[in-house]
Specification:
disordered C terminus; MFS transporter
């Protein structure tokens, strides 16, 4: 058991490292704009470049894990992430910084699924649901460590040296994996890729697949836009609080989703009404972010509560994976989950640049040292509010839950 836990921790540390890389631009927005000589729109493009390869590699990553040794598959993407991290820290301009983010996204696409693959190798199937929940919490923890704890490092060493430190952690992890990550080559498939393409086409033809994907995309968008990039400067400028306080407030979105994911999952299982829980998540997000953007708030405590609620509401995207699997054939469930995950992660690629564009165009006067005023950030956050609202409308009126054999399908999924 000790060896199994050790192997799981090694794989989970890759996810931890990847999430820290993913969200790190959010803690250094002003530094990046100043060093790379870009405005906030191009900052969004730079950060969002990560999600190009991250999105495109979601389904191929699963196919690769099915066909090759998990040990080798994990180590190569980790190396690519490390290279991307070092390149980002050295990048003299926007173009190289964006390329570095593309490298990071490519490697990171293998992290989450890699943890689950390792878990399937070393743990009994009856622990898999628990392991998946722990993995989701570790991802949120990695994101938190890519934000608040980096403030003193950036203050003392600068953002470039901080990226070198983060990347060095990944390099140490790679060396440890090389010596200690030993996994059996079991569960490898020789199934032709063409059958996977046919499964993908079957999933894509289902209208409910698209409705659920839209919901999942819109409910992850606040994490990609607010928690990962623009949230800290928005809170700092709009609510007139110190940078460290703003970072603490926004970090509660990650705490919210870390707690909300297993909590709402338990609620959905207990009540057996997954759609009601999906509606609840979207409505909570709409109300919480509505208060943040549309009402005057002077209390840090209230902001913490509202950002926590807004983050917890995003747990709805995690529950959407269960629903999309129910709405597709049992033999296509893995492909359906991969399709849904693509919809989730593409939100960063679409909305990080778009919200940056809205913020830039809302600025009435010229920026000073790449600083945007609170009103401009507020206009960008209205896009996020509409995301929550549209997700609420979609789940209430457009998303359906199959009533026949749904529970049997879930049982079959757990047994397979």
């Amino acid at each position: 058991m000790f060896k199994s836990v050790l192997l799981f921790i090694l794989a989970a540390l890759f996810l931890f490292f990847e999430m820290a890389l993913q969200v790190s631009p959010g803690i250094m927005t002003e530094n990046l704009m100043s060093s790379l000589h870009i405005d906030i729109f191009w900052l969004g493009v730079t950060s969002g470049a990560y999600f190009i390869t991250y999105t495109l590699m979601q389904i191929p990553a699963g196919l690769i894990y099915d066909r090759f040794s998990a040990r080798n598959v994990i180590m190569l993407p980790l190396l690519i992430c490390i290279i991307g991290g070092f390149l980002f820290g050295l990048a003299p301009n926007f173009y190289l910084a964006a390329c570095a983010r593309i490298f990071m996204g490519f490697g990171s696409a293998f992290a989450f699924i890699g943890v689950l693959v390792v878990a399937s190798h070393v743990f009994s199937k009856r622990y898999f649901t628990l392991i998946a929940g722990i993995t989701q919490m570790l991802a949120a923890l990695g994101a938190m460590c890519g934000a608040l704890p980096l403030i003193p490092l950036i203050d003392h060493f600068g953002w470039r040296a901080t990226m070198m430190i983060i990347s060095s952690f990944g390099l140490i992890l790679l060396i440890i994996m090389f010596f200690y990550l030993k996994l059996p080559n079991k569960h490898l498939t020789t199934k032709p890729v063409t059958s996977s393409w046919l499964a993908f086409k079957s999933v894509a033809r289902q209208s409910q697949t698209w409705m659920i994907a839209i919901y999942a995309c819109l409910l992850w968008m606040p994490m990609a836009v607010v928690a990962s990039l623009y949230g800290i400067p928005f809170v700092e400028q709009y609510f007139n609080v110190p940078f460290s306080v703003a970072a603490t407030i926004v970090t509660f979105m990650w705490i919210g989703i870390a707690i909300g994911s297993p909590l709402f999952g338990f609620l959905a299982d207990k009540t057996e009404h997954i759609k009601r829980v999906l509606v609840l998540c979207a409505v909570i997000g709409t109300v919480a972010f509505g208060f943040i953007t549309l009402t005057p708030i002077n209390s840090v405590t209230i902001l913490v509560i509202l950002f926590f609620a807004a983050g917890a509401a995003c747990a709805g995207q995690a529950l959407s994976f269960s629903l999309v699997s129910r709405n597709n054939k049992l033999e296509h469930r893995a492909t359906a989950i991969g399709f849904n995950n693509m919809a989730v992660v593409i939100s960063g690629f679409i909305f990080q640049p778009f919200v940056g564009y809205v913020i830039r165009e809302s600025q009435s006067q010229l920026t000073t040292n790449y600083l945007y005023n609170g009103s401009s950030y507020h206009n960008g956050m209205i896009v996020v509010l509409f995301g929550y609202l549209i997700a609420s409308i979609a789940v209430i009126f457009l998303i359906k839950v199959p009533h026949s054999n749904s529970s049997n399908n879930d049982i079959a999924m757990l047994k397979s």
